[in-house]
Amino acid sequence: MREQTGEGGRAGRESSSIPCNLCGGTDVSTLSNRSRSGKPLRTVICRSCGLVWSDPRPHDARQFYEEEYRLSYKHTYQPKPKHVLRAGKVALSRFEKIKDLLASPKLVLDVGTGGGEFAYLLRSLGHQVQGVEPNKGYAEYSIREYGLTVQVGFVQDAAFLPESFDVVTIWHVLEHTEDPGAVLALLRSWLKPGGRLVVEVPNVEATCQAPKNTFHEAHLYNFNVVTLRRLAKKQGLREVRHVISRDGGNITMVFGREEAPIVNGAALDIPGNYEWIARIVRGHSAWRHHLTPMPYVRAWQRFCRSLEERRETAAVSSGKELLDDLYGRELRARFSIEAGNGVA
Questions:
Q1: 3-class DSSP state for residue 203?
Q2: How far is CA 38 from each of CA 8, 28, 51, rounded to the nearest angstrom?
Q3: Residue 162 pLDDT > 80, yes or no?
């Protein structure tokens, strides 16, 4: 039985086959029945806390991320020069977000190393970096091309001693995991006392993308600031700070491990969060989206990026050469600016 609500004619109370990873509830409402590819994908939201997930699972996660994800997402087994350049620029932007955590040499774990661009940047800056990456093609490329230390496999199977790292980063990986709460608990265990965990995920409240692109098979979970904070708190992590990207699309949150895990289930409910998220997602219509400048700005940015990538990768023989040039230029420019401002 379903209980109908007045929210845009959408179905109200339903049940899910997968309990909520945050509060354990199964009382949900369906937000969408299609993925961005147009294929069937049921996306539900917990009515108690507002966590959003795919129910049922759209694929076998291990097989998908080991072999199929990069082929499906980027149409390649190993990164092409344009992917390296793009990821290198993203790595620089990520470093800017947390450079205060990396002001002196640190022991860093990068979870979901991908092609290795961020880990290579940190190593170039003097940090000791280890990585974990389940996709064999990308992991093997990062090891061969940059000489990185990467465990090929899933973070749940990684072998690290407790309290091994000063900083652990997990950029756009948590949403892909089958049990994000367990992953956060594992990452917490690898943090040294006073260490920091950096998590970045897509923001389910985002309206910068076309409505049909909000949900897709690769993202098993979808968070807003409140659900990410509460899920981390459940595992004994305390938010230090967070930032939402200018377009609203991403949440970057920094955590410490000063708190004990939450054991009281009632403390995991988030009153009003379900209604808040559902109102945003269901109100994000195609016609409203096209009345904003966002789709046209993004199209222009993609066009300009394509031209820039062709120019910058035209004479490059390897990913390492490309990143050495990119990072060298950016870091020289940054240090020049700092020196001009009297920064030692």
A1: strand
A2: 21, 22, 23
A3: yes
In the chain, at which residue ranges do the beta strands (DSSP E only) sit?
3-4, 11-15, 27-34, 40-46, 52-54, 107-111, 128-133, 149-152, 165-171, 191-202, 221-222, 238-244, 250-256
For helices 319-340 and 117-124, the axis angle rounded to 10 degrees is 50
Round to whole Å and give the CA distance between 313 and 321.
10
Q: What distance separates the 2 farthest-apart alpha carbons in the chain? A: 68
pLDDT of residue 73: 58
Of residues 46 and 315, more confidently modeled: 46
Q: What is the model's pLDDT at position 240?
A: 97
Pairing of strands 107-111, 165-171: parallel
pLDDT score of 9: 36
Residue 12 carries which side chain, given as an amino acid letter? G
At 313 the pLDDT is 83
* CB of 262 closer than 8 Å to CB of 233: yes
Residue 181 corresponds to which tokens in the numbers above? Answer: 């709460």
- Report how far residue 36's alpha carbon sits from residue 94's, in angstroms, rounded to the nearest whole number: 26
Which amino acid, 250? N
Q: Token pair of 276, please?
A: 């808040």
- The packing angle between helices 136-146 and 117-124, to 10°, is 30
Tokens describing residue 251: 């949440």
pTM: 0.89
Could you tell me which residues are beta bridge partners of residue 46?
28
State the pLDDT at residue 10: 46
Q: Cβ distance 282 to 261 under 8 Å?
A: no
Task: Say which DSSP state 257 is in.
Answer: -
Contact of 181 with 22, CB cutoff 8 Å: yes
Q: The tokens of 108 are what?
A: 């860093």
* Cis peptide bond N-terminal to 293, omega within 30: no
Average pLDDT of the chain is: 89
Token pair belonging to 18: 């997968």
Residue 211 DSSP label = G
Helix, strand or coil, per DSSP, at residue 245: coil
pLDDT band at 264 (very low <50, low <70, confident <90, very high): confident
Q: Whole-angstrom Cα distance, residue 37 to residue 16?
A: 23
Q: Are strands 11-15 and 3-4 parallel, antiparallel or unpaired?
A: antiparallel
